[in-house]
Amino acid sequence: MNISKRLISISFILINILWISIYFSFNPNFYLKHFDTPQITNINKTDIQNIYSFLQNKSDLNNNFTALEASHLRDVQKIFSIIYYILRISILVFVLNVSFLIYSKKSNQILKLLFIWSIITLSFILVLIFTTALNFRLSFNIFHEIFFPQWNRSFPIDSNLIKLFPESFFILISQKIFYTISIISLIIIIFYLIKKKTSREVNNI
After folding, report:
1. Which residues have CB under 8 Å from 125's CB, separation 6+?
2. DSSP structural state of residue 66
3. Model pLDDT for residues 103-114, shown as the tens digit of each residue
């Protein structure tokens, strides 16, 4: 039983973070809504669609990128492939173990687990929001040093990749991811507290 609880907890956190990250990362409508502006006049929408399709392994990368940019995008593609794999495994693990608890007539423990790990997730996200707000560029560089140690991540300011994905894009998408995860965690926390309070009132009648 304890193993099921641990697996539910771990898979819940992974699903919460990875699914939301993928949603915003692979949403071209989100990109075009916020960056198809007069301030960015040289955006090639075909390149944007090509990158989004390439990162999802749906097409090859076109020839509008340098060898260094293409190398970086291939590494990003590998990372997202791993993320997709982990997300699918997490969903499977979550569903199987939730089903096991329901079958074992322990379904009342599921919401409590989600409540506990929503608090932990929310705390973690608040720390990330605080650290990135203090110095986003430092946080961004640390992230790239971890995931791109081969150093194919530095480009001239006039490169096509930088024009398509300026720093403001990563700031905005990070905010959207952090805030969405926080909101979902808060909803679960509030729902649990309301349910617990309601149960107490019913028992006292």
Report:
1. 178, 181, 182, 185
2. -
3. 887 777 788 888
Side-chain half-sphere CA neighbours of 109 within 13 A: 17
DSSP conformation class of 135: -
**C-alpha span between 75 and 102 (Å, rounded):** 41
What's the CA gap between 54 and 63, in Å, rounded?
A: 12
Burial 69-108 (b: 16+ CB within 10 A, else e): bbebbeebbeebeebeeebeebeebbeebbeebeeeeeee
CA neighbours closer than 13 Å in the CB half-sphere of residue 81: 11
Q: What is the pTM of this model?
A: 0.79
Q: Give the total residue count for the chain.
A: 205
Domain extent at residue 138: 2-204
Structural domain tally of the chain? 1
Start-to-end CA span in the chain (Å): 33
Q: Note the pLDDT tens digit of each residue in 146-189.
A: 767 665 567 777 788 888 888 888 888 888 888 999 999 999 99
Distance CA 11, CA 49 (A): 31
Dihedral sign, Cα of residue 176, residue 181, residue 187, residue 190: negative
CB 112 within 8 A of CB 30: no
d(CA 15, CA 86): 9
